[in-house]
Amino acid sequence: MQPESIISLIDEVVPSLDRDLIDVRRAIHRHPELAGSEVRTAALVADQLRAAGLEVSTGVGGHGVVGILDCAEPGATIGYRADMDAVAMDEASESEFRSQVDGAGHLCGHDIHTAIGIGVARTLARVRDQLSGRVVFYFQPAEEALTGAKAMLDARVLELAEPDEIYALHCAHIPVGTFAVMPGGGLPGHDNFDLELSGPEAADKAEEIAARIASWSTVRPPATPEQHEQLLADLLVEDGPLARFVFAGAWISRDETRAQVTTHGWIKAWPDESYPGIRERVMDLVQDVCGAEGLNHLTFREAPFPAMVCSVDLSESAAQYFRGAFGADAATVLHAPFPFNGEDFAYFLNRVRGAMFFVGVANPAAGLSGIVHTPTFAADERAIALGVRAMAGWLATRLYVLAD
Fold first, then answer.
1. Quick one: which of 46, 41, 60 has its CA closest to 158?
2. How far apart are CA 90 and CA 81, in angstroms?
3. Three-class SS of residue 101?
4. What is the per-residue pLDDT across 297-350, written as a single tens digit (0 to 9) for each?
5. 3-186+307-403, what's its fold?
6. What are the residue boundaries of the structural domains of the chain, listed by start?
7. At the N or C end, where does the chain have fewer CB atoms within 10 A?
8. Is it the case that residue 247 has pLDDT exceeding 90?
């Protein structure tokens, strides 16, 4: 069947799932589980996938869930990843489905990601007789800790059914009904270091290093609605103010028993090739403040955490698809990454060609900011059905293209 006919079928299916998927999202939202503790959410996901007729594996890389959907005829394999964990932050909301767990809230939209992932699986299951190939759904734990993707990969998850391409969708504070793609871009990686100092001047040296590290930042997190709007505008500019950036800082801990002070530094930068030079800069700083001896007490993480970099051609093709499905203004192209976020989907993209897209969840007129990792994060739930339509149609289209 031609993609246009399959997409018409998908568009007929999605409205029938809308209310149920909103209920699923709210059930997850009421009971957020932090990284590594996604027991209840994983069980809900597994039940939903089994009911849709998928082959389901649980306990993958922690509480990860994998669902395999085999279509009517053999063909290519497409992967789809959603994350399930919550943020360690209290929710400032009075909604009827607000978090019932102190110190935890779905303030990054992973409840929406999970509901959309379930919706895509259920939708494609309904039209599987018209498709060729296989779709593998990865519901990942511990994204907020940036450990879940690697744990699933270490559990040899790709060998269950090796995908030819893989995709993910993330919430963003862009208007509901719109999408964004990041060809050749994505989200920055990061690097960390620890510097252990002792002696009478240790505290002063640690403070100086922390202050000088922070001074390297070329960007600052937006603090007002106007600054958020400026950030979005800067992301749209090719070779603009965010084509290169550094966002850095440090915090200090003290061990009174050992009379030791430790500076814990972190750096996020773009492009990803910046990190070797930044490590040299850190070493020069330590030597300048502490002398050559200080380098003996400086340790970096084994390797910088990788940036998430999306396929250029797949991202651009997806933008064309979204515009065809939702209107000429439905997809924007981001030419720079959000400087303040990271994503362990990077590990999947290091192994499999693919991309992450953003789905808009903001509706300022309704008081729904869509700004993730804030206590007031709130999302327009129309984004769930829109995300399901977009990704189910896109995955079906890719199965058809790869089978051609």
1. 60
2. 26
3. coil
4. 999 988 999 999 999 999 999 999 999 999 999 999 999 999 999 999 999 999
5. Aminopeptidase (3.40.630)
6. 3-186+307-403, 191-226+241-300
7. C
8. yes
Q: Which two tokens mark 40?
A: 């209840």
Query: Is there a contact between 186 and 346 (Cβ–Cβ < 8 Å)?
Result: yes
Q: Which of 211-225, 234-248, 252-266, 353-367 has the lowest mean pLDDT?
A: 252-266
Contact 380/363 with Cβ under 8 angstroms?
Answer: yes
For every residue of 197-239, DSSP letters joined together read EESTTHHHHHHHHHHHHHTT-S-----SHHHHHHHHHHHTSTT
pTM (predicted TM-score): 0.96
Residue bearing tokens 């999302």: 379
Res. 257: pLDDT tops 90: no
281 by Cβ neighbours in 10 Å (0-12 / 13-18 / 19+) ranks as middle
* Structure tokens given for 14: 């999605």
- What secondary structure does DSSP assign to 45-78, as a single string? HHHHHHHTT-EEEEEETTTEEEEEEE-SEEEEEE
Residue among 94, 111, 121 at smallest CA distance from 17: 121
Q: How would you classify residue 40: left for phi > 0, otherwise alpha for psi between -120 and 50, otherwise beta?
A: alpha
Token pair, residue 31, equals 């009971």
pLDDT digits (tens, 9 = 90+) for 136-156: 999 999 999 999 999 999 999
Q: Count how many Cα atoms sit within 13 Å of the Cα of residue 357 in the half-sphere of its side chain.
A: 32
Model confidence band, residue 118 (pLDDT cutoffs 50, 70, 90): very high
Query: What single DSSP character describes residue 306?
Result: P
Polymer length in residues for the chain = 404
Name the strands in the sheet holding 331-333, side by side, starting at the edge strand that comes first in the sequence: 55-60, 64-70, 132-140, 73-83, 165-175, 354-362, 179-181, 331-333
Instruction: For residue 44, count CB atoms less than 10 angstroms from its CB and return exposed for 0-12, middle for 13-18, buried for 19 or more.
Output: buried
